Amino acid sequence: MTEYERLVPAMASALAKRGYTTLTPVQKAVADPGLEGADLLVSAQTGSGKTVAFGLAFAPTLLGGEERFGRASAPLALAIAPTRELALQVKRELEWLYAETGAVIASCVGGMDIRTERRALERGAQIVVGTPGRLRDHIDRGALDLSGLKAVVLDEADEMLDLGFREDLEFILEAAPEERRTLMFSATVPRAIEELARSYQRDAVRVTTAAEKGQHGDIAYRALAVTPHDREHAIINVLRFYEAPTAIVFCSTRAAVNHLTARLNNRGFSVVALSGELSQNERMHALQAMRDGRARVCIATDVAARGIDLPNLELVVHADLPTNPETLLHRSGRTGRAGRKGVSALIVPVPAIRRAERLLAMAKITAEWANPPSADEILQRDDERLLADPILAEPVADDEAAFTDALLATLDARQIAAAFVRLYRKGRSAPEELRDVDLSQRRPARERRPGEAGEQAPRPPRDAFGPGRWISISVGRKQNAEPRWLIPMLCRAGGITRNEIGAIRMQQEETYIEIAEASADAFLARIGPKQLIEKGIRLTRLEGVPDMAAKPRGKAAGDRPDRGPRKERDFGKERDFGNERDNGRRGRASGNDDGADKPHRKAWEKGADAQARSHDAAVREERSGKPAGFKGKAGKARPFKDGPFPDKPARHDHKAAGAPPKRKARKSAN
Fold first, then answer.
1. 239 CB neighbour count, 10 Å cutoff
2. pTM, entire model
3. How far apart are CA 331 and CA 280, in angstroms?
4. Domains in the chain: boundaries
5. Is the N end or the C end of the chain the one with fewer CB atoms within 10 Å?
């Protein structure tokens, strides 16, 4: 206990009972006697034990040299957290840490009964934990007295600012006494946090652990490239491969959470959902199910990305890519906590590979790129887990011996073993068959130059492609064939890269594709003698360059009747206007427009538009029998304005002809 000598005795005893053998770097830093009484701005990785750290940090200030608290009255410490789940978790952590001091800890969070919280505050509490909005509500109602406050802690301060709690935080800090300690704990310290610290802290000491500067060593990052169609199948295979006691799958929207929850439930996974649309009671029950072991997988939005600590959480799956590096770090920080190992797996569809690379580069994370676990790898992993199960090494108990001997006498040992394997696999979801993604075209991050992270390698120029051989595949425009799915299909089937594919000439019923001559033999050999690629698509070798003129689109040339020469149509001045306008546009596009004819061209365009309006007005007048200028509400005339042609007067001038008489009002039936 030499490491705990500088701690308050009650804190040291609580840590020892909890099973702590050593303190984390951030806990050691804030427990330094030289920082006692100082304001702190602490940044440390998610999962590094920040809750215990600030509990140790303000313990000497609250106890004042005593071993136990006296009778509870006005709060001595206030801990503010961004979410209800995190606030309740902080309360649980402080309860066991301060158990031997006799501290009374109350919570004030949204979604709970405010009357119960008010009664708890009236009875008295040394430490109050809450969310910004509910704490401000209690202060406004006069239920929360901050006059005796000695310390204020802002946990996950950057998240509170991101969620829009700045005004509430400033209100609470201004209501607190000036002679207090202010401790800010955050995974990152952006400029907004620094401004808040300068405004409400006095000579704050910046505490940064060495581990913050590098990648979290207890988290293994894996980027798994999949086709968009296999995204959900890949999530199932990842969960099956790792078989983590507890796992979280992050989605970007509530709808995605609901969809994936239903999908995994149907596949036999014990799943709970956690999103903002759930009530507080439902969210608490979901987290409790994870802690009790009744559920193993939590499907969540980013509402659960901050501060939630679940036991034995070994796997984080990003079903949807995070929007920024901070979200990636906080999601991944749910695992690898307090010295435990964990895996953070990013499911990356092929079109999002570059975006994922940029995200990892901005977060300064090195991830292992691979394909998701295959069905064979999962079954092999199941066999390894079965052989490593400690139940196989346990001796036969006395009450099991008689029945074991009866089984061996009745059945063959091989048959018993097969039945045991079937029972072991029965409760597990069957793995999915996935398509492999070619990662050979992805440049490793170390080969990129600074400033080009995520940029796609330039394709070699067309004239450098060299000689090639032509093939034909049995799909074309009629089958909605597109290069964006034809190229990956050919790469998978023939073991080539997209740089070995040359020109693509698409026809109505087939598509001609050029393959680099150096790779053509290996490509055709891999396709096989049946010349089938996939989904019934057949390949045909061609000799020389295909004749595009011999394959007209649509019907054959002989099936179309000769329509003869096209007749010229005369559109009169309207056609002249269009030609003049088109010529003017072509002049601008070609760069020959010197600006001299702009007024002339605008006049012609304005004239064309005016003539079109006049024609429409004449048609309306002929159909309705009303003058062309009679528009809008009854009794209101709006004449057309004169066009750009002085020899063409307006069709109807209401000012000259007089407005039409007003209609008489219809008498009411009543």
1. 25
2. 0.53
3. 21
4. 2-213, 219-379, 464-552
5. C
